[in-house]
Amino acid sequence: MTAPQISIVTPCLNRAHFLGEAIGSVLAQNHDGVEHIIVDGMSTDGTVELLVRHSHLRVIREPDRSLYDALNKGLRAATGDIIGHLNSDDLYPPGTFAEVAKAFADPQIDAVYGGAEIFEDDQSGERQTRHSFTGRTAAELSLANVTYGSPITNARFFRRRVYDRVGYLDLRYRIASDRDFLMRVALSEPRAALLDRVVYLYRMHSGSLTFHADPAAENKVREECLAIAEEYLAKSELPPEARRCCRRWHERESAQAALRAMRAGEWARFQDYAARGLRANALWPVMFARHLGGDLLQRIRG
After folding, report:
1. What per-residue string of b and e applies to 266-291 under the rule 16 or more CB within 10 Å gives b?
2. Which residues are CB-neighbours of 274 under 8 A, at least 6 positions away?
């Protein structure tokens, strides 16, 4: 049986330090019919010199508006029927493509999901696993995982027809557009296969866009999550389970944002988040009190 054509899309900008290992993790799959597309937003750190050493790559090099703009360019350029997203600082574990291709051998399957791990290189260079998302509950594309859970976006492979059906990444969101995309996919209820294995490795490091401790960046993520939740909650046709998940998501994000504003003495921002919370849920003050109590208890203990 001919192996299905797999397209892997990697957006990058000044990640030469990690990109070579990401490319190597694709090559190490030793899988026929793989297309690896690198969308470079005009890097100046040696990325270009790295890319020219890999003649098998398809390279798109031009300015872009955001990470998701670059990703959309790669998705539209992809020729494979099966598409995966690989961040420039992350890795695929060995054997991933073989298992993904096996699951997609069923022509009725639209999506394949697996587990993910977050790793970090310690000071000695040893790789340490910091967190694992494994098992059905963590890996499935549930509405809970997409909203207030851990979406592990890159541990998901889709047929091209999924993008044709639900569209690409929404460029209004510069940080959390993957959640909006996965929400659309989840609501479309694709026929999916779940692999009982880790298919993606997220790298934790100081420059990571996914894992960071920058309060300003956290605020931006929270603002986008609130905006996405509010957009879905405004849809009259939203299914009840999706509405419940979006409300819980909105409650958590608005409460955390309000807590941060309150601790900073930014009362106008606090009132804004409280008003947004009330519009989404009349019981928001009760929910906020619970978050506040949990925050105070954590501070007392810690």
Report:
1. eeebbeebbebbeebbeebeebbeeb
2. 254, 258, 284, 285, 288
Percent of the chain with pLDDT over 90: 85
With beta carbons less than 8 A apart as the criterion, state whether 22 and 86 touch: yes
Q: Does the domain at residues 6-203 carry the CATH identifier 3.90.550.10?
A: yes
Instruction: Please write down the long-range contacts of 277-281, taking CB distance under 8 Å and 24 or more positions apart.
Output: 277/250, 277/251, 280/229, 280/230, 280/233, 280/247, 280/250, 280/251, 280/254, 281/247, 281/250, 281/251
- Alpha helices by DSSP H, listed for 63-172, are 67-77, 96-104, 136-139, 143-146, 160-166
Q: How many Cβ atoms are within 10 Å of 72's Cβ, its own excluded? A: 23
Confidence of residue 287 (pLDDT cuts 50, 70, 90): confident
Query: Is the distance from CB of 58 to CB of 36 less than 8 angstroms?
Result: yes
What secondary structure letter does DSSP report for 58? E
Residue 299 has pLDDT above 90, yes or no: no
Taking the C-alpha atoms of residue 218 and residue 201, their distance in angstroms, rounded to an integer, is: 22
Residue 289 phi, psi (nearest 5) = -60, -40
- Start-end ranges of CATH 3.90.550.10 in the chain? 6-203
Alpha-carbon 48 to chain mean position: 26
* CA nearest neighbour of 82 among 156, 149, 183: 156
CB proximity list for 12: less than 8 A, separation 6 or greater: 19, 38, 39, 40, 41, 43, 47, 70, 88
Residue 260: C-alpha distances to residues 134, 209, 219, 271 (Å): 31, 21, 9, 12
- Give the mean model confidence (pLDDT) for residues 206-227: 76
